[in-house]
Each structure stands twice: as C-alpha cells, then as structure tokens.
Automatic annotation (TrEMBL):
PROSITE patterns: RIESKE. PANTHER family: RIESKE 2FE-2S IRON-SULFUR PROTEIN YHFW-RELATED, SARCOSINE DEHYDROGENASE-RELATED. Keywords: 2Fe-2S, Disulfide bond, Iron, Iron-sulfur, Metal-binding. It comes from the Bacteria. This is FAD-dependent oxidoreductase. Residues 419-503 form the Rieske domain.
Amino acid sequence: MDTSSNCHTSFWILDTSLPSFEPLKEDIQVDIGIVGGGITGITTAYLLAKEGFSIALLEADALAKGTTGHTTAKITSQHDLIYDELLHHVGKEKAQQYYKANEEALNFMKEIVKSKGIDCDFSEEDTYIYANSDNGLTKLEKEKRAYERLHIDGGTASLPIDIPFKDALRMNSQAQFHPLKYAAYLVEELVEMGVKIFENTPAIDVIEKKQPEIVTKEKHTITCDYVLSTSHFPFYDGMGLYFSRMYAERSYIVGVTTEKPVQRGMYLSADEPKRSLRTADMNGTPLLLIGGESHKTGQSHHTAKHFEALREFGDTHFTLQKSLFQWGAQDLITMDKIPYIGRLTANHPNIFVATGYRKWGMTNGTAAALLITNLITEQQSPYIDVFSPSRFYADPSIKHFLSQNANVASEFVKGKIKLPYKQLEDLETNEGALVYYENQKAGGYKDANGDTYAVDTTCTHLRCEVTWNDGEQSWDCPCHGSRFSPTGEVLEGPADEPLQRFK
C-alpha cells in the first residue's frame, strides 16, 4: 500500500478552478448583499438574480473553496440515522417537511443539471446505511420503521459492495456529482446576469438600519435591502447567540485507488467508528473516497492518526494501491440537528441566515437557497417553521445546550492550566506545539524553511485556548470551533480576528 501522499487539499479543488474575482474596493449599493460564496450563496444569488434583484456576493477567500470544496459531494436526503430521531423530537409533520425539503433540493439540482446540460459528473445512485453490531441493527430497524411512517422511498436491501454487513437500509434515486463543476456553471450564469462578485472580501459586521449596511474588513460598505449570511458560520450574530447553539466537528476524507473494484453507490455505516464510502472519477481513474473519524473541533490533538485509520480501513476491505488525496472538513451541528434557515432573529425582518447543515450541505444548502428565495419574494413555503432559527424544542434542545456549554467550560479551564513542554528552538520542521517564548506560553511553529513563529494561543472569539492540529497544521479552538493558520490567520469562524503574533 502506497501512502506517500501528504496532500491536504481536496481533489475537487485541484481538479477544477473557478474564475477569480477582485476584492471589493469601494462602497456600493444593491438590493441584496450575500456573504458566503459556497453552494448556498451561489445558488441563492442565482435564484434571486433570476427574479430581477441586483446582488453583491462576497466571499472571504475564493468561491467554493471552503466547505463546498471539501465535501464528499453526496446529494442525498439520507442524512445518517435521522428520521427516527426527528419523529421523536419534532413529530411526524416536521420530520416529513425536513425530508421533502431535501428531496425538493435534490430534484432542483437534478433538473438544472439535465435542462442546462451541466457537465459535472452527475449520476443518480442509491444510498445505503449498513450495520453489523446489535446496537447498529436496532437503530437500523427503527430507521426503517421511520421510513415507512414518512413514506420515504427506500427500505431494507442488500449491499452491492463487498463489505461485511448484517443488514442495510437503502434510499432510492439519490445522486452524486462534482461540486465545483456544478458551481462553475452557476457562477458563469451569475456573471451573465450582472451579479457583482467579490473574493478575498471578509465581511465583519452589519450596521442595522432600514437599509442595513454590510461592513467589510477593509471598511467598505454594501448598502442593501436584504442581508444574507450564507457563510459557514454566521458572520453576524445579531444577538442570536449562534456560537452557543451550535458546535463544530472535524471529519476526514482520503481519496485512494484500490486493487479491488468498488461498486458505484454511496455507503455509510450505522456503527462507530463511522465510515462513509463513495466512488468518484479523476480523469478516467476510479477513485474511492473514504470518510469518517469525526470529533469536536480542537478536541483531538493527533489528527494525523485519523487519516491513517481511514487508509487502514480501505486497505483491509479493498486493498489500497495509492493514497492520492486527504483533507479535513468542518461541520456545524445545531442542538436538534436541523439547520437554521430563515430570519436571523425575530427582530431582523431583512437579515437572513443559513447555517448548521451537519454533514449534508449539498441538499440542505440548496434547500436553504430555495427557502430564503421564497421568503424574500414573499412566496409561501411549508418549510419556514421547521428550519426557523428562532425555533426551540425543549427535547432535545435543553439537553444538548447544557451538555455543549458544559463541554465549553471544561475545555476553557483545561486550556488555561495546560503548560508548554518545549522551547521554540526545539521544534521540528512543520511542527507546532505549546512552547515557552520569552518566559510566557505561546503557540510555536517551524515551517519547511526553518523559520519559526510564535502566536498567542488565546482564541480571539471568547478567550479559550487553541490546540495544535498536527494532521492539518492549524490552531483549533476546542470551545466554539474557530480555526487559525500556523501563523495565526483566521481559517474558520466564529472568530474574525487573527491570533496575536509575537515578534
């Protein structure tokens, strides 16, 4: 087995590049300002531009480079073992609405790919959840009964893939695709419709007025009738306290070639540790994407082991030839596992948010675009209440809120009392660690050129202490999921200021 690759970049990003756009350099005024250039922001801009609105789309980095570019690119309503849980927590009607909203998103994507002839490696595939343990089989049986109650198209099935299983649950007629090829088509359409697109333009605040103003890091403003926050973590909170109502998880993916052929399809284990499998194509070469190994961000310090565990799984069942790609993904999970899509709070009639897709951003993100478009154009939608950011279900929201914030408090204390064990000059190449620097605690890093850097390890969001992620070479906050580069630049919110760098 060749595991020589140490690539930390999604092969979606390597395989396809989108057009590049200049940063915003002046104050502008439009009907709608959208912050976040992933699948939700791009799709929402496309739908609203078709309705005749003038739009500015802002992205802090490059379009689709974040979560959209680091997905496994499944387009499915089979969101793990979710429907039995939804039946118990939110009831049959809202569970059905969740399923139907995601099916409508899937069908929207199918239709636009077909009608526009988008070359994005789109293929319809069934999806499967399989189980081997007694606990997994019990969960699978409950999920099967939920499918029957909710009239979900699927049921018990045999796996068409050569992997051990005792039972499996199939959802019919789902899909997979190349996310950046799909996004590239929509971006071309945005340009044709006159949408103003700005990359490398972080938005940091909203000035609330009758016509709110989006404020960028460079202090330019976008005056608009509606503000849409479709960035991974909401760039503006508006006292919605989103950082306390969601938590961040890291998961990992490897792209490998195998000696044993793998039957097309999408497969997910019901048992722990989770394993997600799907096939892809790279310039005619069959590729197997293996995902899993989830943990709360900042709470697994030796993340390189997660990539190795995925490769070992692939080698055991399919005999690996070569490991070509590896990357990590960050997912935000709400208290009840349903995304927040709608008005930022009840007091914000013209500021909207879409976040918390868990690991299912392709359908949830497209469902968000469809729902927000309906809200702005004042069309009826049956999905407003189920996704409303202002909703509250006593079970499980209270339990998860208390559990999550107890975990935050624990991590806050642990970070404050943890002491360094190295000096800055003792670091190896590409190593990061807590170090003593000028008689104080710091985050030290030595790059490939031998240059060393020291940063303050106190997260700029709410003062927790970041930890070193050795598999992805970043400083990660275990409290609310902010992530920073080795030299302190923000990679993921909710933090919007870099770590202080010591001279």
